Predict the 3D structure of the following.
Amino acid sequence: MYRGGFDSIFGDGCEIGIDLCQHCVRDTLGTWLRVAPPDHGPVEESRPLSSPKGDSPA
Ligand SMILES: [Zn+2]
């Protein structure tokens, strides 16, 4: 859950919820999404969003 601060475009202190499965998040937000593998620690790292396992679409 993301809570907007004051002067948020959604309104002061509003809570923003989103209900998307990982596939929809990737399909919808993939352009802006950054995925960091856990073994690389907290460092954010861009990587291709292709799935090596070939997940079926939701
Ligand atoms: Zn989905």
Remarks:
- The chain is about 15% helix and 5% strand.
- The longest helix spans residues 22-29.
- Residues 2-38 form one domain.
